[in-house]
Amino acid sequence: MSRRAHGTAKAATNGRATNVREPAAAGVDLRVRIGPLRLANPILVASGTFGYGDEYAHVLDVSALGGVITKTVTLEPCAGNPAARIAETPAGMLNSIGLENVGLAKFRSEKLPKLRSLGATIIASVGGETPDELARLLEGLGGERGVGGFEINFSCPNVAKGGARYWAEPRRLERTMARLRPLTRAGLIAKLSPDVTSIADLAAACEQGGADALTAVNTFVGMAVDLDHGTSRLGRATGGLSGPAIKPLALARCHEAVRAVAIPVIGSGGIMNGRDALEFLAIGAAAVQVGTASFIRPGAAADVLAELRAFLEQRGIARLDEWRGSLADLGVPEAQGPRGRRR
Amino acid sequence: MITDAGVPAGSELSGVEWRQTIARVHRQVDAGADHRWLDLDVPAPFSIPVPGQFLQLLLAPPAAVLLARPMSVATVAPHAHGCTVGFLYAPVGVGTRLLAELSPGDPVEVLGPLGRGYPLEREGVPVLIAGGRGVAPLLFAAQALAHPGDGRAPRRCEFLFGARDAAHLVGLDLARREIEAVGGRLHLSTDDGSAGTRGTVLDLLERVAPELPGAPVIHACGPHGMLKAVARWALARRVPAYLAMESVMACGTGVCRGCPLPRSAAQRAAFDPARTPSLWGNREYAMCCTEGPVFEAADLDWERIE
């Protein structure tokens, strides 16, 4: 992840989100379609790790990314959880932010216009404690210019109500997606928790309800205690684990989701560099999200993109589609066959 | 209050853009009492940090720790190709112990300068209060007061420095040099009486306050217990006090929302989100990294701070 690699990413990706229908002037064709969304490349930044897109805009060209997924917005502003909200653990970090966000009104009036002016492909993450709240959010944002898609946060591990546990119900997910579907023509992406008995069942339910895509996965519920003080290392007992520690776990959940549905699955979990992204794409992810890496290097997503591009170029691969899913059949007995093979 | 202390942090508002770049270890030496002094050469372009600001120090991969370490700046020497930034720290955790092993020439990725520093320009007699290794940003503050630049006159300050014992008054020589150069006074306290007054910096403050030549303005850094005591002392006497807080952090730039500090009731009541666009309009919590790490005593709810 060198500075030079970062520079290459900027130079090579002139294409703004609005130009993605035209093939890149040279090099690898990285374009991705996710429902109605057309992304210039598969590198997204994960909700909650990139603010509202403007905080890091002086470090990297956010318009050159596949898209920016904004911090989950709720109907009302949310102050979040008391300290401590962060605890570093081996190769990872726990967070217990508690959905701190500016609320729908401020998001629309202040944050969205700023992000639009930066030329980013915008995917707005929305969160609610009930299907009704989600519907009201989509009613409020569904027609907003420049919002290409919505990621429905069905998987926050750090709130008392409306978190991952509440949404880990296939029928509730299906009914909710079906209710949200008519409210927008933008892409609808369901972000799933990994802490479930069967992510395949939840993925299928979302697909059935009309989701354009899934994100697999949100953070894993984790815990860390301070033996010396006899306390949790977080303000709450548990938090969400992210970072390299979860990559193999996330990869397995993502693979399981890919096998379960025909719609695109966006991989997320511990992606720190281009090779990590390539692994998720190889097991069938349509795109990926860079999360915790941005906390460490704000320009990480641009570096991941540059590394991904360089890798494919070096292999002589002209289109990302040739790479995607190349390892999706791993571990699947021939006779059994996948439930919903993609292409 | 936010409205008094100036413009909230955030690159778009302060006009100062933090950046991430590769620095090199210039020098690393033992500072006594298990502390280290680290000088990093930070190449231009890089904004020159001010006292109270911090940098995020990231070890070159593969490192045993994932996140960068926020570290308060103890001194800055600008030069033709950037600046040399000094840090005083104790290797107490995994990350800082790895940092302590670095030798001259080794790379360290730095991100900064971050946060808001001390309002040293505020009128009044500067009273700098340091507890233990919290002395780091106050060494820098003393240096800045003694060498203000731009043709401004040096300012005399009172420097109150407390630690558990004489050995833990790390950075004392440096403090003495800066203070005495401008005719300031250094007051010491130790828990065991092995240097200066036996007691705490609060005892020093009680003793020094009545003798000051003018109204004091406090700039402090140290353990939160000490800062609470200083804040309460200052609030009871309506003395302006600016305190550099600590928190676990992930990003250091206001993005992760990982370092909340509870706002005081007064600040919650007066809070105007329209005036604080970079602060996410959070009436309940201020982020230590962007709104701080230096806070005015009246702005935080000290009862809820551990």
Features:
heterodimer; A: 343 residues; alpha/beta; TIM Barrel; eight-stranded parallel β-barrel; four-stranded antiparallel sheet; 11 helices; 32% helix; globular; disordered N terminus; B: 306 residues; Elongation Factor Tu (Ef-tu), domain 3; seven-stranded antiparallel sheet; seven-stranded mixed sheet; 8 helices; 16 strands; 21% helix
Q: How would you briefly describe this protein structure?
A:
The complex is a heterodimer of chains A (343) and B (306). Chain A has eleven helices and 16 strands.
What does this 3D model show about the protein?
Chain A is α/β, with parallel strands linked by helices and 343 residues long. In chain A, 32% of the residues lie in helices and 18% in strands. Chain A has helices at residues 3-12, 103-117, 131-141, 164-167, 170-180, 199-209, 247-260, 274-282, 292-296, 300-314, 320-323; strands at residues 32-34, 37-39, 43-45, 67-69, 86-89, 92-95, 122-126, 147-153, 187-192, 213-216, 220-222, 225-226, 231-232, 239-242, 265-268, 287-290. An eight-stranded parallel β-barrel of chain A has the order 3-4-7-8-9-10-15-16, surrounded by six helices. In chain A, strands 5-6-14-11 form a four-stranded antiparallel sheet, with no helix packed on it. Chain A has a two-stranded antiparallel sheet with strand order 1-2. In chain A, helix 8 (274-282) packs across helix 10. The longest helix of chain A is centred in the N-terminal third of the chain and has 15 residues, at 103-117. The radius of gyration of chain A is 19 Å and the shape is globular. Chain A starts with a helix and ends in a 20-residue tail after the last helix. Chain B is α/β, with parallel strands linked by helices and 306 residues long. Chain B has a domain at 2-114: Translation factors (Elongation Factor Tu (Ef-tu), domain 3, Beta Barrel), CATH 2.40.30.10. Chain B contains eight helices and 16 strands. Chain B has helices spanning 2-5, 11-14, 94-100, 135-146, 172-181, 201-208, 224-236, 265-270; strands at 19-32, 35-43, 54-59, 69-72, 75-79, 82-89, 107-114, 125-131, 158-163, 185-190, 197-198, 216-221, 241-244, 260-262, 285-287, 294-296. Chain B has a seven-stranded antiparallel sheet. In chain B, 52% of the residues are buried. The chains are: A alpha/beta (343), B alpha/beta (306). Chain A binds chain B through residues 3, 48-51, 54-56, 58-59, 77, 79-88, 91-93, 95, 97, 100-103, 106, 110, 243-244, 292, 294-299, and chain B through 10-12, 17, 19-22, 58, 65-68, 109, 111, 247-251, 253-262, 273, 277, 280-285, 304, 306.
